[in-house]
Every structure is written in C-alpha cells, then in structure tokens.
Specification:
The chain is mostly helical. The chain has a single domain, classed as MetI-like fold (Orthogonal Bundle), CATH 1.10.3720. It is built from 13 helices and two strands. The chain has a two-stranded antiparallel ribbon with strand order 1-2. α4 runs antiparallel to α9 and α11 runs antiparallel to α13. It is globular, with a radius of gyration of 25 Å. The two termini are 31 Å apart.
Length: 300
C-alpha cells in the first residue's frame, strides 16, 4: 500500500502547531487557572483571614458595578486608555513601516542604526527605565522653561501656530490628533521597536523576483510600494496591530489602577477592573482583526 503523503498546506499546519505547542501547554497549565481564579474573585467579596487564607462570598456583578459606576476615576482612565490606543496605534504602525523600509536599504552602518532602534526594548527594564523616565522629565522641564522664556522674550506661542493650521483649513480633529502625537512622541518611538523588527523581517522575505518584474514593467517606486511591498507585508500589519494594542493596554493606567487596588487588598474590585479591561481589549482585537484580515494579502 502506498503511504499517503501530506500536502504542503498540511505540513505548514503541522509546523505551526509544533511552533505554538510550548506556549499552548504553558497557557493551559498556568494562565487558564489564573484566569478562572480572576473571574471567580471578580464575582465575589474576598475576606482575608488572620491565618493567611481567605474566604469568598458570591456577590454577582457588584464589583463590576462598583468599578463602572461608583469608582472615582476608573471610567475616565478606561476611556482615556481606549482613546490613546485609537490615536497611537495608526501612527505607530505607519512610523514602524516607514523606518523599516529605510533600515531595509543598503547603507554604511546599517547594523548600528538597527541596533539603536532596538535599544528601547533593552532600556525598558528596571533601573534603566526609571533613569530614562527621570531624564525625560528633566528634559521636558528644561524644554518647558526654554519655551516659556521664548514666549516672554520673542512672543512665541504654540496656540498661535495651531490657529494658523486651523485657518489653513485643516480640520480641528486633525490638528488635535497631530498635537496629541507630538505630546507623546517619546512613548510612540519607544513602543515601535518590536514592530520595526517584524516589518524588517517581512520586507526581507519579499521575493526579489517581484521587484525585478515590476522594474521590467516600468513601475515607479510609488507603484512598486503599493502593488508589491504593501500587499506582501499586509499580514504582518495585522500582527503588529495586535501586538501594539496589547502592549498599549499592558502599559496603560488601567493596569496601574487595578494593581494599586490589588495592593489595597481589594481583590474582588481589582479582578473586576482587570476583566473589564481584558474584555474591551478582546473586543477591539476582534473588530480590528476581522477588518484587517479581510484586506490582508497572503502570498502562496
């Protein structure tokens, strides 16, 4: 009897399953248990015992109502976090793709420049992150002082330039969007490191024959980008969007608020805050993932 061979698609599926198998096993062993416990805590009132244990009393959705309707600022923090995502994610993706295209070119010192854009990941840990945060505050303070001096002596006024942009016919929402990006430019650049690396890998995987064909056909650089480069990296845009959204919420004030509530031994309310933010992130990911997945081009 002839042995049935797997198709190329089946081989790729098996390779993908083997690749995610370690993560999936860890997910089942560790994360699922923590997730079930968090859901249980969010629906209960937790009382700590002097012996070191705890007792839980089922109270239904009271913790969720407290977080949404009675907590002093959780609603505002959650709304601001979602707004920041809507502002930052498109620009982070655009900025990452733009820098990746530049870094994918051939020039002297390319490896050093790539390492510089990867440094924010290394600097995002421990004492280095604290030092960078203090340095940023000092720089911003100095820049603010200089700006105020210039405003007094030379009459420089940021609002004046914003009025000029408005008078030129730019929509107010666009002006607000640009000013919001400029105000958080450091965070945006810091949050783009992984995305840049992913886009570089995607650009290097584009078959050179496609560029040769486009060149023979007389396509311009603009046409080559939209007809070859962008479709080929579009699946990785979805990957970067998912990563950026999750990363933004992990580093958002929502997580800090839930953690501070946890430190105050209010485990039920903290769990409810965590579940609410997780649910919103999942909803955003489902909507955006569905939209982008339909427009992504998969090259076989």
């Amino acid at each position: 009897m002839k042995k049935k061979r797997m198709t190329l698609k089946q081989k790729r599926a098996v390779a993908g399953l083997l690749f995610i198998a370690p993560w999936f096993v860890g997910f089942l062993l560790y994360y699922v248990r923590s997730l079930v416990l968090t859901v249980s805590f969010s629906l209960s009132k937790i009382n700590l015992l002097d012996t070191g244990g705890y007792t839980s009393t089922f109270i239904g959705l009271d913790n969720y109502k407290l977080a949404l309707f009675k907590h002093a600022n959780f609603n505002q923090i959650l709304a601001n976090s979602v707004a920041d995502i809507l502002i930052d994610v498109p620009f982070i993706i655009f900025f990452s793709l733009f820098i990746a295209i530049l870094l994918n070119g051939k020039f002297k010192g390319r490896g050093l420049v790539r390492a510089i854009f990867f440094l924010p990941i290394l600097f995002g840990s421990g004492a280095i992150a604290t030092a960078l945060q203090l340095a940023t505050q000092n720089i911003q303070g100095g820049a603010s002082a200089v700006a105020s001096d210039m405003a007094v002596t030379a009459g420089v006024n940021a609002g004046y330039f914003l009025d000029i942009f408005t008078q030129l016919g730019l929509p107010l929402k666009l002006v607000d969007y640009i000013t919001s990006l400029v105000a958080r430019i450091y965070e945006i650049v810091r949050a783009s490191s992984v995305q840049i690396i992913i886009f570089i890998a995607a650009l290097q995987s584009v078959p050179s024959s496609l560029y040769e064909v486009s060149k023979i056909e007389g396509a311009t650089s603009y046409e080559t980008f939209w007809k070859v480069t962008f479709p080929m990296v579009s699946p990785l845009i979805l990957t970067n969007v998912v990563y950026t959204i999750v990363d933004s919420f992990v580093n958002s004030k929502v997580v800090d608020t839930a953690y501070k509530t946890f430190q105050n031994y209010d485990y039920g309310l903290s769990s409810a805050m965590s579940m609410l933010s997780t649910g919103i992130v999942c909803l955003i990911l489902i909507i955006i993932g569905t939209i982008l997945n339909k427009r992504a081009f998969y090259y076989n």
